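Worked example 4.2. Below are the chains of a multi-component assembly; read each line carefully before continuing.
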Amino acid sequence: MQKIIKDGAIIDCDLNWIQDQEQAIALLSSDAKASAIIPLTLWLDDEHDTSGVAGFWIDSTQSTEPLADKDLSNVAVIGLNFLAFADGRSFSYARLLRERLNYQGEIRALGNFIPDQLGYLLRVGFNSFQFNESVDIEKALLLHKPFSVAYQGDVADPRPVFARR
Amino acid sequence: MHKYSFFVYSKFAKVAANIICLLSGCSKMYQYDAIDQQIVEERVNQFRDQTQRFLNNELAEAEFLPLRLQNGLYVQRHAPMLRIAIPYGMLSSTQLRKLADISRRYDRGYGHFSTRQNLQLNWPTLESVPDILAELAEVQMHAVQTSGNCIRNTTTDQYAGVIDDEIVDPRPYCEMIRQWSTFHPEFAFLPRKFKIAVNATETADRAATQVHDIGLHIKKNDAGEIGFKVIVGGGLGRTPMIGTTICEFMPRKDILSYLEAILRVYNQQGNRLNKYKARIKILTKALGIDEIRSRVEAEWEFLKGRENTVPEMEFERLQSFFTEPAYQNLNNEPSSLTEKLAQSAGFARWYQRNTFSHKKDGYRIVTLTLKKSGVAPGDATSDQMDIAADLADKYSFGELRVSHEQNLVLADVQQDQLVALWEAAKDAGFATPTLGLLTDMICCPGGDFCALANAKSIPIAQQIQERFSDLDYLYDIGELDLNISGCMNACGHHHIGNLGILGVDKKGEEFYQVSIGGASGHDASIGRIIGPSFSEEEIGSIIEKIVAVYIDKRTEEERFIDTYRRIGIAPYKEAAYAKDN
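Applying the procedure described above to all two chains together yields the following structure tokens:
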């Protein structure tokens, strides 16, 4: 079974990232929906009853803007996909989810991000990480905190350095 | 040496250096505290681990690439190139000696000062880079974000803090931006690189702020409050553009949140499909300044007034590092100076060109030029770095600056010591009296060193320096910026040279395109290409012909750029392409 890192520990992957819209629609009428992370477009689509899904995922090419007036309190997980690890849009999406939309649930990194980005990912609000299967997750976990101090505020401590000196 | 004893030794050396620094009054720049020091040391460890994993084949080349780039490490024609940051151009003599030492032991005994206040080493081995970084950390230096698609070294005026028409000293603000941008977790993987420059005087713009992704002009409003005019979307490269004002006045307490809003809009909306269309200048042009302003303001609505609002206490803390050194009460133009000016034409020339007026009576700002004919512009040997450090200790409170024009600056020299400094600078090859003249060129390393270049640039610079070696003629021509880039990435800033030369590849042969009319100051403009490119053999004579047109057409008070702006491109074009008879 695939492993993920969640809240600093390695666990079995507990949720099902559904990338295909049709497959996701099919799941909505089954019990499997409780562990499904469905596409954002489907979650936003009023034609379908998406209640009871674990959450949805946002692609790098999308944005958090459609969520501005949505109630996220029942969303257990929001996945953010990395099309390529150098595509840094999801770093902004994570901060917007935490700071602007006050989202308290799990933010899961999906796709092509790499272990060396863990430090930054944690700081902007991600707390779970579903790496590509080729990644050695034990080694990845060692990289989760490259720095013990930072200049900017982040989710762990919103105060910038000048408020901590 | 035993690891522990080395640790003790290096800590002791650091403390000792700081004490010496304090005693000699040279600590007029930012000093790291425990937090700053910890960050650079942890960065060294992180990069050492990344390099080791790459060498062990545990980290793929494609993944290591952006990680090493964020540490200023390129793989170049001959070896990796390491770009070391000199934040806003400030260097202590201790730091410069360390750079001399590093370039001697890990490189081939020289380094290249770039146009953005960095030092580039062209020959280190990849395996040695973590050790180099560890040594830099001992003197509060690093190579953080000197490359890669992140926020780069913040640059400013090399005369910051010592000129009298400055609104305020820009360096505390540069340091504030340095800290905010260093390892910013949200902005490490931007669509493309991002450069910020700060200017604080109405009379000049020595940091070329209008061709930066963000240019900040420090202002005072009618109430006497300090803030910034924010200019966005300038840049060079393939699509050169002058920046546009996005905000006329942003109070200083709000500048970090406003920068964060700009970066957040850019991070989400910049082009990620085509790297040639990825800079914020392209987004700004595509949306129009009004639209990008409204998007930034919409973002800023949520960010302003929150944690990134900078308290007064922090400004005071940052300013406390940049206090005046122990100036003496002296008079301007002491007799030792005026006598020498009358006696020695050589000294008078140097004084006129390479020194600049200081805010404090009896002092002068001196530029040590790195433009000796036959040497690549901006290059300094390790021995020269040591000498410059000694000169800084002896004549300028142990502190130096690095300029956008690739020279070194001693900012606080007593006028009664100028003659002695001139003699010493001459001996070291620092006194070519041509600052601001045609041969004080900006030039990238070019095809001799850089894997990206289409053509060599250093031999072109040398050819032109040789053609214009007659100082009387050079002085008669007067102020003229000539900039050379070996490819359209434009590291040599050819677009904003009054004359620009760009190396191009034509069917495998190196050719050179000439542009005219660029400028980098408050009146910044992009040069126009005069026509088809020239061969390496032709280029020197073409520049001579163009300059001859200026000499012929100018009025008494006109600089090269003024005449061009009055008469247009046609006469220059005609002269450059006229058939020799």
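Take a moment to check your reading of the output against the notes. The interface with chain A takes residues 33, 35, 38-39, 42-43, 45-46, 50, 58-59, 63, 66-67, 149, 179-180, 182-190, 256, 264, 267-268, 272, 302, 307-308, 310-311, 313-314, 317 of chain B (CB under 8 Å). The domain at 442-577 of chain B is CATH 3.30.413.10 (Sulfite Reductase Hemoprotein; domain 1).
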